[in-house]
Design goal:
Blueprint: H1 5-11, E1 18-21, E2 25-29, E3 39-43, H2 55-76, E4 80-84, E5 95-100, H3 119-129
Antiparallel strand pairs: 1-2, 2-3, 3-5, 4-5
Amino acid sequence: MKDCVFCGIADGHIPAEKIYQDSMIIAFLDINPVQFGHSLIVPRTHFPSMNESPDDIIEYIFVKAKHLMPIIQKATKADYVAVSVVGLDVPHFHVHLVPRYFNDGLANFWPTKKYNGKEMRQFADKIRSLI
């Protein structure tokens, strides 16, 4: 896609600190990292979101994420590496690999809510009805 930053990185027109690349994907350091070593895995082909990506691409990216996670963990001396798919900042499917430390002060997940009364069952019923 012409104006896509990640397509420009994949094509080599936009510079990035690449940590891994092959014919299907490219992995590089995030320019605005949550932690140093925060990396992105991006398919070379443009897919706006995970929902619009072929299953084989999704599988390939997550297998590569599994391979890169311990390497990033070792390189950054992190306690673990978190995996996230957000997709709002750049409309090109990508996976975040974020080094994390037990005492880093970052939230472990988003703020949570509590279901009231029968809400949990109602939401589950709505979701199940669409499967």
